[in-house]
Every structure is written in structure tokens, then in C-alpha cells.
Amino acid sequence: MKLGILDSSPGNGHMFSFSALFNGYEKSELTTCPFPAIIDYLPKYETPVQALSKLASVTDIWMPSNQYASRVARFAKIPNVHKNFETFLEAVDGIILTNDNPIGREGILDACIKTGKPVFVDKLLANSRSEFARIINSQHFLGQIFCASGAGFSRDFENLPWDDAVENAIISTPKSWDIYGIHVVDIFLKFAERNRIEYEIGELIREGDTAMRVIEVSGETNRNIVIKALGKVDSAISATIYSGSESRVATLTDPFFAFSEMLEHWLTRNVLQTYSDELVRYSVALKILGFDK
User: Fold this and answer.
1) How far apart are CA 150 and CA 261, in angstroms?
2) Which CATH number applies to 155-253: 3.30.360, 1.10.287, 3.90.1070, 1.10.443?
3) What's the confidence (pLDDT) of residue 271?
4) N or C: fewer beta carbons within 10 Å in the chain?
5) CA-to-CA distance for 128 and 172, rounded, in angstroms?
6) In whole angstroms, what is the distance from residue 61 CA to residue 8 CA?
7) What pTM value is reported for the model?
8) What is the pLDDT of residues 16-25, one digit of tens each?
9) For residues 50-75, b (16+ Cβ closer than 10 Å) or e, as one string?
10) What tens digit of pLDDT does each residue of 34-59 get?
């Protein structure tokens, strides 16, 4: 498949990292990447990722700034830089939209959907249930749109325990609730599914970028799972499970494999139209985030 990287938003470096997973990257261009975290972790791994490179490569890119698009293309060995958005859409078999802010990108996303080609939407698909429904109902086929959190695919959170000895848990992101809260919500939902946790959605307390949602776990004892955003704090996405005086902590330390497994899931499930349950889970996530209008 020929994939295209589309658009960008402030603070999001996935046009660099996602492209490198498929194509590899020019070592001499590494320091030109403006995202220190990517510069830190990419050299630790072999790129391209074999499972992804067998499925697709990133062949085309369009961004509002052609200069920035050319910079990403040099870094990630992307051969075709487009000045025209329409010719970009025609050239590719699938689209990766790396603008993770649903406000202001509606026209671009609608144009992608109209092509009938599979579209990966980075992080947050919609910030209301009505917009979510509109996007889903505009699909040409079930699963044309795929949106998920890389944190939810991370191996770092796979082995967290949940048993009768557990008293409560806290899952937190160091960034804003509106854009990054989906990470902790997705970790919670997969954690709950894996451990067969029944729950009720409790109160949402928020102030600006910070927010806290209490999830009330069903059962005889009073146990809660708290998911929260800390605003701008210098820490990793983390989950802590408390059992009496003991605690067990997991942190997101391996975004490389989280991203690669998320993209492989998209290509092998949704692109082949076998469909995954990510958007079903996403509908629940919007309610937890408070985007339920």
C-alpha cells in the first residue's frame, strides 16, 4: 500500500515517527527533527519495522507548510511532496492524518472520507458525540475510519494486576484532558476489559487542562479507579495499582512498539475491512471524557 502523511498540529511529531516506522529514516537528518523524544528513542530500535514495511510504505506527504513537509520527507525518505491537497488524495491508497485536534480540521477529514480510502485519524476523533456520529455515519465502509490511542496499545500496561486485594488505581497523563485524556481513558477501558471489571462512571472534576474522573468499580467493597490529566507536568503517562501498603507502577516507556502495534492493527484489521472494535470503545471513551453532547 501507498500511504500518505497529511497535515499537522502544534506539538505533534507523529509525521516524523510514524513515517520512520514504515520507511526508516536518514540518520544524517535525525537532529533536524524538532521533537527531542523522537530523537531519543528512534536510534534505539531497528527501522523500518518489518511487520509494517511488508504491508505499506509512506510514499506521499502534504502539509499546509510545503517547507515543513519537505523537511519531514527528507527525514523519513518520503519520495513525493505535494503542494496540492487534491493530488495528494488521488496519489495514495490510505491516509494517516497527523492533526490530532478535532477543532479546525473538519474540512480536511471530510475530504479524506469522501475518497472512500481508509483513514487513520491521530488520537482524538471528535470532541462531541454528535460530531462522532456524523463522522462514523459518513464512512464508505465499516471501519474506513480508525482512531486509537498509542498508549492503549503499549506493552507497558499489559501486566497490571486486578484482584480482590486491590483497593484502588490511578491512571494519569501529564498533559491536557481535552487532547491527551483519551490516552488514559483508552488504557483504562482495555484494562477493564482485560480484567473483566464492571464499573459505573462517576463524577468528572475539571479545571482548565487538569481533570479527574472517578470510575466506581462494582462489587461489595468500595473501590475506585481514578483517571486524570495533570495539565503541564514533566512526567510520563502512568498507572498505579494500590493493594494495602503496596503499590505497583507502570509507565509509558516504549512508544515505539505502541505506535507500531497500533498501526499494524489498523492495516491488518480496518484496511482489510475485517473491522476492529476501536470505535465501539471510542464511543464509551467520549462519555468518560465528558464529550457527550
Assistant:
1) 8
2) 3.30.360
3) 65
4) C
5) 22
6) 11
7) 0.90
8) 999 999 999 9
9) eebeebbbbbbbbbeeeeebebbbeb
10) 999 899 999 999 999 999 999 999 99
Cell of 98: 497527523
The three cell numbers locating residue 256:
515505539
**Do residues 289 and 185 make contact, with C-beta atoms less than 8 angstroms apart?**
yes
Can you give the pLDDT at residue 283? Answer: 84
Distance CA 118, CA 93 (A): 8
Question: Could you state, in order of their start, the residue ranges of all structural domains in the chain?
Answer: 2-148+257-275, 155-253
Residues in the chain: 293
Q: Please tell me the class of the 2-148+257-275 domain.
A: alpha beta
By C-alpha distance, which of 171, 147, 146 is closest to 157? 171
pLDDT of residue 114: 96
d(CA 137, CA 141): 9
One-letter amino acid of 99: N
Render the chain in DSSP notation, one character per residue: -EEEEE---TT--HHHHHHHHHH---GGGGGG-S-HHHHHHGGGS-SS-HHHHTT-EEEEEE-S-HHHHHHHHHHHT--EE-S-HHHHHHH-SEEEE----SSS-HHHHHHHHHTTS-EEEES---SSHHHHHHHHHT-SSTTSEEEE-GGGG-GGGTT---STT--EEEEEESS-HHHHHHHHHHHHHHHHHHHT--EEEEEEEEETTEEEEEEEE-SSS-EEEEEEEESS-SS--EEEEEETTEEEEEE---HHHHHHHHHHHIIIIITTT---SHHHHHHHHHHHHT---
